[in-house]
Amino acid sequence: MTPDQFKTKCREYNVISPQPLLRISEKVQHAKSQDGHIYDVHVHTFHKDCINEFYFLLKMLGERTRGIQSLHDGDVAPFTPRKTEEIDYAVEEFRNTYHYSTEEDIYENPPTDITWKDIEDTFEKAHSRAPLIEHIDSGREAAYYVFSRFLRKNSQEEILKDFFKNFAVTNINGFKGKSLITCALMMDFYNEFKGPVKRSLSKQIEDYNTLARAYPVLPFLAIDPRRMDEDEDSEEHLFNLFLKAFDRKKAGLFFGVKFYPALGYSPSDYRLEPIYEICQEFQIPIVTHCGGEIVSTFSKDIWVYEDFKQEKSVVPGDTRKDRVFYLNDPKRWESVLRKYPNLKINFAHFGNDEAFFDENIHSSRDYLARKRTILNLMKCYSGVFADFSYAFTSPHVYGSFMKTLNENTSGVQDRILFGTDFWVALFAKGERFVTHQTAFIQLFESNPNLRDKIFRTNAERYLFEIVEDNPASPCK
């Protein structure tokens, strides 16, 4: 299928409605009709068959490595033992089994035959050595907490139901009893972590469509330009995935698209132009990762297409995080918006919590500049938004966040969205996920108008309004 054929197919009658409100499911329509309904625009429901075993192992060990370092303002990292005599038994079992020292070491020499059963057995050994108490007070308990809530769930529906029951904002005073509409964001690791997944992207689309029929969920399709390299007849080709997700004639209930440049591509890749053209024409909202560099490509030589040219360039940087910082930088989207100024884009995580520090703590990564770029794009393009997902779990930046909102009242307060980044934030924060979410809500108790914007009306503008008044000119 050529790009022109793809666009023609999208424009066929009743394939994709040009009116966003006509693309929502009956469940979302019902939730939206309820008084005081609210939104969480950043939720993940993918389960273990949507990632590979090696990635989980890498993530698990990486969290332990990072947990050794204390976080800012006394916030204890989830896998840091609070007492010196306590040992993270699960990670110790993994370390003894797979002989790693750093994330990069295990990535360069990954186990070739690891299975989910191996991982489960390792956790069970750890559990037998260190019986858990009710609350998470150490690294070993945090590890098992994540395992029991994530790895033992066998479907996206199980994870979503756990979210609604135990972690959604509607469990917190002030929002109890309200209808919650969630944006469920798909991830596409594209074999990035050296192993296929059991549940292909095509099958995952079917899972998300099932969720959308049963719950007030707006699914977002994962986009990766490298899927254009698949055989054009393959169901895993980007165009075929897009049509399967959005084609109403084939029961497609997807509502938006998700980009994750940190996995090794530029958003101004020329192969993405047909996607942007359709997203702008049909007002399909985009969310792009614009936060930390933890989940990212480990490739040392990253070649990408920039500024919609069929020429490759090498991503600069001496370390993995420096290279991925470049890919995550909202500046990569400036050329996209110049060419497609009426796109609706949510810069997820608002640049990372470090964008709200008083000063940069990395000599090679300017997070404060990220925030300035996003604010400038908001001034230039009415379709630019930002959620504060994951970053809301960092109370030490609340003051700077509120200052940003109050200093830019004319625009920013109308562009901030509420999102949690469940279940990824749960992995990193454990039970403190709910505590931090409650504290974040309390920031707006004295300003109900701002609270309504962040938890409801801004999301409705991002999701459902038509953007058509932006000039096709460079952002100054």
UniProtKB/TrEMBL annotation:
Q: Does the keyword Lyase apply?
A: yes
Write down the InterPro entries for this protein, in alphabetical order: ACMSD, Amidohydro-rel, Metal_Hydrolase
| Gene3D superfamilies, sorted | Metal-dependent hydrolases
The record's section on Pfam families has: Amidohydro_2 (PF04909)
Q: Which keywords has UniProt assigned to this entry?
A: Lyase
- Does Lyase appear among the keywords? yes
Lineage: superkingdom = Bacteria
**Residue ranges constituting the Amidohydrolase-related domain according to the UniProt record:** 242-462
Q: Which PANTHER family match?
A: 2-AMINO-3-CARBOXYLMUCONATE-6-SEMIALDEHYDE DECARBOXYLASE, ISO-OROTATE DECARBOXYLASE (EUROFUNG)
> What name has this protein been given in UniProt?
Amidohydrolase family protein
Species the sequence originates in? Sphingobacterium arenae
